[in-house]
Amino acid sequence: MTIIEALIDLQEVDGRIRELEIEMKDLPRRKALETARLSGVSADLQAAKANYEYANQRVKNFEEEAKGLKEKVMQLRTTQAGLKTNKEYQQYSIQIDLVSHELEAAENNQIAAMDLLPSAEARIAEAQAKYDTEKEGVDKFCAEVDERITAVKEELDSSMSERAEKVKAVNDPKFMLYYERLRTKRWPVVVPLTHDGVCDGCHLVQPPSVGQLADANAKNGKEDKPQSIVACTMCGRILYRD
User: Fold this and answer.
1) Strand ranges (E), 75-206
2) 10 Å Cβ neighbour count for 100?
3) In angstroms, rounded to a whole number, what is the distance separating the alpha carbons of residues 138 and 134?
4) Calpha distance 107→70 (Å, rounded)
5) Sign of the torsion angle spanned by Cα atoms 88, 94, 97, 101
6) In whole angstroms, what is the distance from residue 203 CA to residue 197 CA?
7) How far apart are the first and last CA of the chain?
8) Residue 197's pLDDT is what?
9) pLDDT tens by residue, 99-150
10) 170: closest CA among 21, 2, 55?
11) Rounded CA gap, 184 and 199, in Å?
């Protein structure tokens, strides 16, 4: 196997590792987005519950108000029954009428508030059903993502072990050093030089001398002779001829 062939094999493994690393970063992001979406649905449910509690509390408040007014009317009437003069009696009658009107208003408000409870309960039921449906889907999605994360980790470990073996096959330190330095900046690192003299990485036409060096490399590889690094004059990628 020539050095270029060994580098191409290494690059194939590195390409797989790059894809797995990208996926490893993307999977938690996708999981977080789904969880955030569920939080929005949960917020709607909590809002529906809060709205019901508010409506129910209004009913209780009006009920307490009506109860207090009823007791006040009874107290006024009890006091009125013991009065001795018509003037005092009439004054209490006026007070009783005023409190009775307040009582009627409180009872009407209580009835109106109670009328809002069924719709508030229906909103909770609707929001709860939506939340349950969404949560089931999100839980399933997150479980699948967790399974995929585990699988990707295992595949990454396997690929890294394979990479270590591929690195050993590149038995020229200068090629390995050049490849490692360039792979974080350019990808892929090792690309063909077309028969038209074009770098398959940046698509720049190379000088004839580059093509001659690539041809010489290909010949030396077949004859098991030393090979030199032939780089693109624009992007620096390692070029080779088939």
Assistant:
1) 190-192
2) 15
3) 6
4) 10
5) negative
6) 9
7) 13
8) 95
9) 999 999 999 999 999 999 999 999 999 999 999 999 999 999 999 999 999 9
10) 2
11) 19
